[in-house]
Design goal:
single chain; alpha/beta; Alkaline Phosphatase, subunit A; eight-stranded mixed beta sheet; 13 helices; 20% strand; binds zinc ion
């Protein structure tokens, strides 16, 4: 009988020794009986998703964890567009956007329009499907203040700068978009986008939604800050390349976007919040359900990464313990024929509050998997495991080999 694989990804779980935890990492400090038991009865190691010391974003890291290579990366815009369920055509340029607030002089007051959550669909519809110089401009809201912009037409390029100034100090105007390569296509694209940004501002500031927000002393969402321009390259779905069925269970748009590109079935629900209040029983149930029809089931749990970004070791410990409980719930399913692997997309050390190039601990457990002489799942114990220190694509080919997807070399 063919095996199945579950890959549980604890976003940003890797860390460094924290003073607050007696110089242990959050993973060493946390009480994780389920993960430890899997490590004890399985094999483990450390993984550098790209290479030692190279920090990596959630999007590219998940691409590699699903079987792509670094050179397949299309940029953040196309991935977010895919996450929002938009299909890009060849030649489209996609951007990530924020609804933002500017004053009358176009100084940015708030990069996230007071973290607007409501009525963004109405605002998005007011600026969707506008034509400028023969270029069609599509716009769609995403979660909270986030949104997606697509330029569709002839002679466009993604080699243009961001309109998002990123850091606001005193009076900071939005950044006029510029060509980054000085070529005709990118100069044209920048011109179109600059025109659109001003046009969108005129339309947005007159929307009822914004007038009401101002009345209620909320910041109006009257401007768009764009970044991460990218074109969708012609990349093959991983599920077509290897000919297998896969599912992805996650809350975050970025992860879902990568999964959709890869050809995975997307499973998401409001009960999965991407935060510490996520419903782990529900998530575990979905994993077990998806195993029925899929060969490979990936799941992402976002909250360890969030706590790392906040620089809070004790909260990160809580997030990790919740991840351990989620694993415990999954293990209640029928695992007879199933390999379970645990990994992270990158480290997010509390001391750095950002992603780092520290390798992440991995483990593989299940029928046919060799045992190592280690006791726990953490950065330190896993460094003694039988998988050694490997690259992201080597880890994933190890998993896909259990699914018999990797061709034999030679004869
Ligand atoms: Zn992160």
């Amino acid at each position: 009988m063919k095996k199945k694989v579950i890959l549980a990804i604890a976003d940003g779980i890797g860390d460094r020794p924290c003073k607050e935890l007696g110089y242990m990492t959050p993973l060493e400090y946390a009480n994780t009986p389920n993960l430890d038991n899997l490590a004890k009865k399985g094999t483990s190691g450390l993984v550098d998703i790209i290479g030692p010391g190279i920090p990596i974003g959630t999007d590219l890291a998940h691409m590699i964890l699903f079987g792509y290579l670094q050179e397949d990366y299309p940029g953040r815009g196309p991935i977010e567009a895919s996450g929002a369920g938009l299909t890009l055509l060849p030649g489209d340029v996609a951007f990530r956007c924020n609804f933002a607030t500017v004053d009358n002089n176009l100084n940015v007051i708030d990069r996230r329009a007071g973290r607007i959550r409501k009525n963004t669909k109405t605002l998005a519809e007011s600026i969707n499907n506008i034509q400028i110089n023969g270029v069609q401009i599509l716009f769609k809201e995403a979660t909270e203040h986030r949104s997606i912009l697509i330029l569709r037409g002839q002679g466009l390029s993604a080699n243009i700068s961001d309109s998002d100034p990123k850091v606001i100090k005193g009076d900071t105007k939005y950044k006029k978009v510029k060509s980054t390569d000085g070529l005709e296509d990118s100069i044209f694209t920048a011109k179109i986008l600059n025109k659109f940004l001003l046009k969108a501002h005129e339309i947005l500031k007159n929307q009822e939604v914004n007038k009401t927000r101002i009345k209620n002393k909320l910041l109006p969402a009257n401007f768009l800050l764009t970044r991460g321009a990218g074109m969708m390259p012609d990349i093959e779905k991983i599920t077509n390349k290897f000919r297998f069925k896969a599912s992805c269970i996650a809350a975050e748009g970025t992860v879902l976007g990568v999964a959709r590109l890869a050809g995975f079935k997307i499973v998401t629900d409001k009960k999965m919040t991407g935060n510490i209040d996520t419903d782990i029983d529900f998530k575990a149930k979905k994993v077990i359900e998806e195993l029925e029809n899929s060969d490979f089931v990936a799941l992402n749990m976002k909250c360890p990464d969030l706590m790392g970004h906040e620089g809070k070791p004790k909260l990160k410990v809580k997030a990790i313990e919740l991840f351990d409980k989620l694993i415990g719930e999954i293990l209640k399913g029928n695992m007879e024929n199933t390999i379970i692997a645990v990994a992270a997309d990158h480290s997010t050390p509390c001391e750095k509050e950002e992603h780092s190039g520290d390798p992440v601990p991995i483990l593989i457990n299940g029928p046919g998997v060799r045992k190592n002489r280690i006791e726990k799942y953490n950065e330190i114990d896993c460094s003694h495991g039988g998988l050694g220190r490997i690259k992201g694509h080597e880890f994933i080919s190890t998993l896909y080999d259990y699914l018999e997807l990797i061709k034999k070399e030679g004869n």
